[in-house]
Amino acid sequence: MDTSSIPQTLPRFSATLDPASMAEIRRAAATGIYDIRGGGAKRKVPHFDDLLFLGASVSRYPLEGYREKCATDVTLGTRFAKKPIKLDIPITIAGMSFGSLSAQAKEALGRGASIVGTSTTTGDGGMTPEERGQSKALVYQYLPSRYGMNPDDIRKADAIEVVIGQGAKPGGGGMLLGQKISDRVAEMRTLPKGIDQRSACRHPDWTGPDDLEIKIEELREITDWEKPIYVKVGATRPYYDVALAVKSGADVVVLDGMQGGTAATQEVFIEHVGIPTLAAIRPAVQALQDLGMYRKVQLVVSGGIRNGADVAKAMALGADAVSIGSAALVALGDNDPALEEEYQKLGTTAGAYDDWQLGLDPAGISTQDPELAKRLDPVAAGRRLANYLSVLTLEAQTIARACGKSHLHNLEPEDLVALTIEAAAMAKVPLAGTDWIPGLSGM
Amino acid sequence: MPAFDLATQSKRDLNQRLHNLPADTNETHWTVANPAGEHAIACGLDAPLTVEIQGHAGYYCAGMNKLATVIVEGNAGVGVGENMMSGTVHVKGDASQSAGATAHGGLLVIDGNASARCGISMKGVDIVVKGSIGPMSAFMAQSGNLVVLGDAGDALGDSIYETRIYVRGAVKSLGADCIEKPMEAKHKADLRRLLDAAGVGPEVSVDEFKRYGSARQLYNFHVDNAAAY
Ligand SMILES: Cc1cc2nc3c(=O)[nH]c(=O)nc-3n(C[C@H](O)[C@H](O)[C@H](O)COP(=O)(O)O)c2cc1C
Fold this sequence. Notes:
The structure holds 2 protein chains of 2 kinds. By secondary structure, chain A is of the alpha/beta class. Helices cover 33% and strands 13% of the residues of chain A.
């Protein structure tokens, strides 16, 4: 019988066992090791895009876009520190380690942040002179590994950030693969060259909030109560974590959602542990309000901030400031389509390159290879970052003026509605066109 | 000789005064009475002073010490000498957990016992404990020497890097990637130097010690070691 005329079923991929899952199974079967990569969660989760601003109308009036002031300044560390940090814009550069990033990239971050009057942050692996030299306000991270931890650097810093967790991997430590351990990185971390460097997931000399309180007291004593002390947590149980950070004596709480980038973490960790930034902000603010500490202990939110609308939305939900990592790297030149040919050689494509752990970055950012790192001009890259930070600020101001606010801090949840039921429930704002906040009002 | 009394003066004032001393100060020998277990006494020092604490100290005594000699006449709480860079910290009693954690340099001497996680993540400090140490000591220890005249608890040197451990008594168990290593002449000389520095006389012979260090099998990830990570 001639079968050519019989209609055929189309080849059909499983939605469950999809091509990406199968490729990962084959990769795992061939190598026996989990996938490690950089960046943040790549899957779609409820995010700031699911929120809209209402803007002024008959019941509220807007501010004139080019005439009326919309202030953007913020002061961090007003609770206990003798020398709080005053920033011109509420967008800071998040902690990214020297080791994961080249010295040039760290310098560029410092330059860009300083041009627009904001702060930058060290990371696992200590403080480099390039970064200190180029950063007007530098936050010094105090991490479990204590790699490169030096009291002289603490005294040089403008604030201290006790890192408990990161949104990309709450509850996880770090890993810098041997390939990225240059002489300089090895020396700063007091380890032999070329070996994998594991960063512990717990601090070596304290456990729990009662100890943290004493640890913060020690840091204050060492720095004579001058410097603000931040506590950074990955978003998991934000209400309790923020409350305990406040109880422990933090001046500032940094809250990092699951979309937040990382230098190198297991894919399974990045995609499956922690909660979205959108879901974390309101419980954190609630904790501060319940303790009477809202605006007294400042809240810095990070994880997936890309544009001025994201900045404005995070602030409307209650953040005092935001912090950016991945987007800042893109502004420096990460994943630039101009380098497509080289990304192809690495088996990927511009925009998707995330093997930052391998140190082969053609953009010279996530590498310790001196030849690759040389490609990044810290002055030009710093300028690009400054431009980008200015745009974020202008965009956030545009929205705030449209909502009739003379300061970004005056944005409020009442300015927002949600496009989806999920986002409405997480952000605790009404679904657009309704007065329904799932979990709060009505059914 | 400046004398400070924590029964009537505040720790904040004490630390501030110690921090404010100019590098060429003549006030180099301080006593601190009635410490009563206060936390963060004499931390963040950065000058060649001697500070004698006449009693028990709480957490993080002499934390991040540089150059100074800090003597605790009694016991010390969690994290004594944590992240010290140089100088000497001497505890005449016992020390709690995480003594000398992440310390980069200098000498930490504990006349009594030290609890769990002694020398955790140590990065170059020399630690001499005249009594015994608790479990998980020298976890992820990177560099420096840990000398123990008594016994060591479970999982000694787990995930150790390049720190050298010398134990005179029994080791309850070794952690992942930590093994006994031969005592060569240079190790004996090194150990003698450390014992001398800690005031341990010739009645304790270096021949009584065993040396432990890294097997270096976990330095680069390998599938077949997955269970050890
Ligand atoms: C390359 C890279 C390195 C990082 N290193 C650190 C680090 O050393 N310490 C830390 O607390 N967070 C680190 N992070 C996380 C950032 O501080 C921040 O939480 C995150 O990037 C914010 O989310 P975003 O990337 O979506 O802006 C790193 C992130 C990246 C992208």
